[in-house]
C-alpha cells in the first residue's frame, strides 16, 4: 500500500503525473486495489492524498463493484459510511460522496445510507442536503417508496428553513430529483408545502 500511496502523491505533482499515471495502470490489475484505496481514503494523514484516493476509488468502483462478492460489497459500503461520517476536509468529503452516489447507482438497496442522510441533515444541513440530493438522483427507485419519500420531504422542508446558500442549493437539487418520482397522494401535497417553504426561504435570503 505504501507504493500505491507514493503513486497517489506523485499524481498530485504536475512534473510526475504522467509517469505515475503509467504506474497506476499496474495496480489496476490488483484485486486489492479497492480496499487499498478505501484504506488510504479513510486514514491517510494528508487530505490531498485522501481526496485523490477517493477520486480514483469512484472510477474503479464503477468498473469493479458488480464483480465483488456480497461480503466485499458490504465492507465497501460500510467503509464509505464511516468515511463520510468522519471526514472533515470538504473536497475529500465531496469525493467520497461521489463514491456513495456510484454505489447507489450500482445497488440502491442501502438503508444505512439513508440513515446517514437523516443524521447528516441534523448535524450539517449542507452536507445532509447534498447526500439527499445524490441519493435522490442516483437511486430514484428508492424515492418511489412512499415512506422513504415522506421522510425525505420532511428533511427537505427542514433544510429549506436554513439560510446558508449551499444548503439551499443542495436542497433544491434534492427537491427537483424527488418531485419527478412522486405520483398522486399525500406526498405530492407535502412536496407543494416544501416548495412554499423554499420560496419563502429564497425571498428571505435575497432580502439580506
Structural features, described:
This protein has helices spanning 2-11, 17-27, 33-43, 47-64, 70-86, 90-106, 111-123, 125-138, 140-143, 146-160, 165-179, 186-207. With 208 residues, the chain is mainly α. The protein has two domains: 1-107, no CATH class; 108-208. The termini are far apart. The model has no long low-confidence stretch (mean pLDDT 87).
Give a brief rundown of this model.
The chain has 208 residues and is mainly alpha-helical. It contains twelve helices and no strands.
Rg from alpha-carbon coordinates:
19 Å
Q: Number of DSSP strands?
A: 0
Structural class: mainly alpha
Compute the number of helices.
12
Given the C-alpha coordinates, what overall shape results? elongated
Poorly predicted runs: none
Descriptors for this entry?
208 residues; mainly alpha; 12 helices
Give the topology.
Elements: H1 2-11, H2 17-27, H3 33-43, H4 47-64, H5 70-86, H6 90-106, H7 111-123, H8 125-138, H9 140-143, H10 146-160, H11 165-179, H12 186-207
Helix pairs in contact: 1-2, 1-4, 3-4, 3-5, 4-6, 5-6, 6-8, 7-8, 8-10, 8-11, 10-11, 10-12, 11-12
Amino acid at each position: 500500500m505504501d507504493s500505491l500511496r507514493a503513486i497517489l502523491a506523485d499524481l498530485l505533482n504536475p512534473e510526475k503525473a504522467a509517469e505515475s499515471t503509467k504506474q497506476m495502470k499496474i495496480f489496476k490489475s490488483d484485486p486489492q486495489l479497492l480496499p487499498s484505496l478505501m484504506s488510504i481514503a479513510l486514514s491517510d494523514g494528508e487530505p490531498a492524498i485522501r481526496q485523490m484516493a477517493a477520486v480514483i476509488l469512484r472510477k474503479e468502483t464503477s468498473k469493479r463493484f458488480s464483480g465483488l462478492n456480497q461480503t466485499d460489497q458490504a465492507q465497501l459500503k460500510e467503509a464509505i459510511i464511516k468515511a463520510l461520517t468522519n471526514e472533515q476536509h470538504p473536497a475529500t468529503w465531496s469525493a467520497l460522496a461521489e463514491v456513495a452516489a456510484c454505489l447507489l447507482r450500482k445497488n440502491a438497496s442501502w438503508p444505512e445510507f439513508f440513515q446517514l442522510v437523516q443524521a447528516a441533515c441534523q448535524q450539517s444541513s449542507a452536507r445532509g442536503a447534498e447526500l439527499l440530493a445524490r441519493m435522490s438522483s442516483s437511486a430514484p427507485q428508492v424515492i418511489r417508496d412512499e415512506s422513504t419519500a415522506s421522510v425525505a420531504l420532511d428533511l427537505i422542508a427542514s433544510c429549506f428553513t436554513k439560510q446558508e446558500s449551499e444548503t439551499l442549493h443542495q436542497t433544491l437539487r434534492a427537491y427537483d430529483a424527488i418531485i419527478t418520482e412522486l405520483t398522486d397522494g399525500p406526498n405530492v401535497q407535502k412536496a407543494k408545502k416544501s416548495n412554499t417553504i423554499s420560496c419563502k426561504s429564497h425571498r428571505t435570503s435575497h432580502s439580506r
